[in-house]
Amino acid sequence: MKTKCAAVVLAAGQGKRMNSSVPKQYLCIKDKPVLYYSLKVFQESFIDEIVLVTAESDIEYCKKEIVEKYGFHKVSHITAGGRERYHSVFSGIEAAGECSYIFIHDGARPFVTEEILERAYASVSEYDACVIGMPSKDTVKLADKNGFASTTPKRDFVWTVQTPQVFSASLIKEAYGILIRDEKRLLAEGMNITDDAMVVETFTDTKVKLVKGSYENIKITTPEDLKIAEAFLDKAGK
Ligand SMILES: Nc1ccn([C@@H]2O[C@H](COP(=O)(O)OP(=O)(O)OP(=O)(O)O)[C@@H](O)[C@H]2O)c(=O)n1
Ligand SMILES: C[C@](O)(CO)[C@H](O)COP(=O)(O)O
């Protein structure tokens, strides 16, 4: 028996790198929006409640054309996101009801699976904080400010991270509380917040466990990702 879990599914981005007038989470792969695939996995899983975060102007559209149309009845709130991803996360975790764990997921990652959610649950139950990712297939170089390779981290220790990123509810609320309170100063100091794990790494003593996801759990970011996504659906016979 699992303890209560909420998911915050992020769909408030503008998708600038996709170069499309329609935000990428609403573009179709085959005949369904990217966001449909992401929400479906959470809807059909052990997750109890889903908070969907969208642009304020898209709330009505999401309610009618995604949540009601596809029967995603676990969506308890559709809440407005903010300028940056981390603002949207903060809005989502504030809206989530009483729960033990919060799964934060990019709505633009349609190939998350129930197995990934199960692995994340097992890990967060043990460590309080985990992030889905995969060992890097490429050698990674850290660049200096002039564009020269400065260091080559040992590849065995390099992971690229995905979502969901999963935390005990009290931990993630504490970490995001500090981030939002000190945001101005942190930005002035040059902090660039690109995922949730780094918020926990920076503001708490809890170590974030890395958990294997899948190389198919891609984020739809640029136009070629839509072609790759179609190929994944073809392969799965969907
Ligand atoms: N202010 C923001 C920015 C991003 N996201 C969400 O966070 C996920 C990952 O972000 P990313 O791929 O960077 O999405 P965009 O910000 O939409 O893309 P871009 O950076 O190309 O503009 C997406 O599901 C996106 O909708 C969000 O909810 N609120
Ligand atoms: C959270 C994330 O999906 C992990 O890879 C990623 O960091 C989101 O960042 P983006 O650069 O805004 O896509």
Number of strands: 11
Indicate the proportion of strand residues: 15-25%
Mean pLDDT over the residues? 97
Specify Rg, calculated over alpha carbons. Answer: 18 Å
Apparent shape: globular
DSSP summary: helix tally: 8
CATH topology annotation: Spore Coat Polysaccharide Biosynthesis Protein SpsA, Chain A
The separation of the N and C termini measures: 31 Å
Briefly note the structural class of the backbone.
alpha/beta
Unreliable runs:
none
Main beta sheet: 7 strands, mixed
- Sheet with most strands: strand arrangement: 5-4-1-6-10-7-11
Write the H/E string, N to C. Answer: EEEHEHEHEHEEEEHHHEH
The CATH class turns out to be Alpha Beta
EC number: 2.7.7.60
GO biological process, one term: isopentenyl diphosphate biosynthetic process, methylerythritol 4-phosphate pathway
Pathway: Isoprenoid biosynthesis; isopentenyl diphosphate biosynthesis via DXP pathway; isopentenyl diphosphate from 1-deoxy-D-xylulose 5-phosphate: step 2/6
Catalytic activity: 2-C-methyl-D-erythritol 4-phosphate + CTP + H(+) = 4-CDP-2-C-methyl-D-erythritol + diphosphate
Polypeptide structure, described:
This protein is of the alpha/beta class. It has helices spanning 34-43, 59-68, 85-95, 114-127, 169-181, 183-188, 196-203, 223-235; strands at 5-11, 28-29, 32-33, 49-54, 75-80, 101-106, 129-135, 142-143, 149-151, 159-168, 209-212. The protein has one domain (5-133, 161-233): Spore Coat Polysaccharide Biosynthesis Protein SpsA, Chain A (Alpha-Beta Complex), CATH 3.90.550. It contains eight helices and eleven strands. The strands form three sheets. Strands 5-4-1-6-10-7-11 form a seven-stranded mixed β-sheet, with helices on both faces. It has a two-stranded antiparallel sheet with strand order 2-3. Helix 3 (85-95) crosses helix 5 and helix 5 (169-181) crosses helix 7 (196-203). The longest helix has 14 residues, at 114-127. The protein starts with a strand and ends with a helix. It binds cytidine-5'-triphosphate (CTP) and the ligand C[C@](O)(CO)[C@H](O)COP(=O)(O)O. Residues 10-17, 25, 53, 81-85, 88, 106-108, 219, 221 line the site of cytidine-5'-triphosphate. Keywords: Isoprene biosynthesis, Nucleotidyltransferase, Transferase.
